[in-house]
Amino acid sequence: MTERPFTSHSLAEWLDHILALHPTEIDLGLTRVRAVAQRLHLDTLPHSTVITVAGTNGKGTTCALLEQVLMAAGRSVGVFSSPHIERYTERVRINGAERPESEHVDAFQAIAAAQGDTSLTFFEYSTLGALHLFARHKPDVVLLEVGLGGRLDATNLIDADLAVVTSIDLDHQEYLGDTRESVGREKSGIFRRGHPAICGEPNPPVTVEEEANRIGAVLQQRGHHFDGRFTTTEWGFRGALWQLEGLPLPHIPQDNAVTALAALEALWPELSVQAIEAGLRQTRVEGRLEPLCDQPRLVVDVAHNPHAARHLAQWLAQQPEPRVHGVCAMLKDKDIEATLVAIKASIDHWYLAPLSGPRGAEAERLAQSLPQGLCYDSVADALEAAIVNAAPEDLVIVFGSFYTVAQAKSYWQTRR
């Protein structure tokens, strides 16, 4: 007897149900998710131009700038990103707005009805749910942010018109390998024959070019086909067709701004400078160097691996505050040692906290990688201590995980 599909009008109940469906949180591979996508006719998005974005870091910020520029140019744009920080509905935006919970429930009900005996992970359900919404609303452009890796990620069931790799470094080694070459190979699996492939990593492993040649993609590499030149007040972009000067400085990492413009040039060379400048001015990304208050200045950032920690350390070195207070909580399956080594010289006082759940690391584990640091029972407790101890002219930075930022923001909203 076939079990009846789960049904509910509550998004929260659906999310609890989906989380319990699959035995593991991560189960890479396209066979299962593609089978369900084909039943729902979601294996293509014929009404939309699709860009798939992979990378160790910078995926969300690159998608955000693409989104803002294209919207400024009059295109309708859908974005699928993950993970969310505060609300599941953050994962899908159409024309800059989250979709109502009822639409996500409708999508999940359709997936459950078509799922049959096929097991799906939470991320695979999320991906299919996003594709269902995009098929329904038919935006001109769809931006798909890869969840993990690229080649075997659920987003890769769609043949993208353009693929982007933002950065390549070690993370998720148990799935992607423990060398940059293996990581580069996995991320380049989103390339498609005859279509442009943008690589924004300034020093990519040779496997990126090897995979592009094997697949037959048209690789465009930073430093060879495009680049950016920055001053303290403006920047310029050099591409195959565009020679842009006097652009406003972005509010996202410079590398990602350069990469996004290369992608835009490849598909829409007719875009106006006005749309590009508007997008650069408007792009802000939640949880990425996001300011929450002044005196002391409080900033949250989702940096959670060595590559992101190095970028955060560079940013901290440019800040005027005399002292930096760091609040950190991480997942135990991340490279805690290398992440903290990359940033520990930039932080004067440490406030360490655990993350709950089976993946959460204890505060004491983080303390092992630091010369000094105080351990607290929660992110909220650690943040409160940092704010109390910081002088008005100091900087408090909260980082280590999307979960860390979510808990810090939740606490800050109640504290105000």
Give your account of this protein's structure.
With 416 residues, the protein is α/β, with parallel strands linked by helices. It has two domains: 11-282, 3-Layer(aba) Sandwich (UDP-N-acetylmuramoyl-L-alanine:D-glutamate ligase); 290-415, Alpha-Beta Complex (Protein-Tyrosine Phosphatase, Chain A), CATH 3.90.190.20. It is built from 15 helices and 17 strands. The chain has helices at residues 11-19, 31-39, 59-72, 101-115, 122-137, 173-176, 180-187, 206-215, 254-267, 273-282, 306-317, 336-343, 363-367, 379-389, 402-415, and strands spanning 49-54, 77-80, 92-94, 97-98, 141-145, 162-165, 196-199, 218-221, 227-230, 235-238, 243-247, 290-293, 297-300, 324-328, 349-352, 374-375, 395-399. The strands form three sheets. An eight-stranded mixed beta sheet has the order 4-3-2-5-1-6-7-8, with helices on both faces. It has a six-stranded mixed beta sheet with strand order 12-13-17-14-15-16. Helix 3 crosses helix 10, helix 7 (180-187) packs parallel to helix 8 and helix 11 (306-317) runs parallel beside helix 12 (336-343). The chain is globular, with a radius of gyration of 21 Å. The N and C termini lie far apart (54 Å).
